[in-house]
Structures are given as C-alpha cells and as structure tokens.
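Hi V.,

You were right to ask for the full record rather than a summary. Here it is.
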Amino acid sequence: MEKISLIKKIENKEKNQIFPVTFDIGDYFDREDIKSIFNLITDKHLLAYDGISISEDSFTIPVTLDTIPKITSILLENKIDFYGVYVLYDKYLEMKEGDKNE
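Predicted structure:
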C-alpha cells in the first residue's frame, strides 16, 4: 500500500492557480543534475516561488500549469527522461495549509 498515491485532478478553471507539480524521473536520479535543472527553471522565472521538494525518484516544484510544457522542454533538452507529471493530493493539501498559515 505504500506505493499508492492520490492524484489531484486539475480543472480548467484552476489553470492560473499555483500547484505543487511533481516530475517523476524514475530510476535516473542525480541530485547534482536536479539542482542544475532547478537553477535553469529558476533562471527562466518559471517557478511561482522559490522551493523544491526532492524525493527518491522525483522532484516537486510550485508552478502554474502554463509553465509545465516549458519545464518538460528543459528536462528533455538536458536529456533527463521523465515518466509522469502530476499533482499529488497530499502535497496540494500541504501547500494549501501553508497558505493559510502565512
């Protein structure tokens, strides 16, 4: 059961909201490469705000939905394969809870 995740469905009316979007890069995972990718994404001003969460085989960043194609292009240009792009429901709830506390 530990490999089960709930995915948040994004409605079209939410496209301008900020979401914690997870990029699953599978078995290939080099922290230095991810840091370089994060810096490229930051340099292109694609993040809603500065922040990254790194797990065993993925990373999560706060973005609006219109930046996802640009970020996937950066991954592909740097030869980093990805296997999924999604919003994990628990990360979404954490972000929303953080917004309430600000």
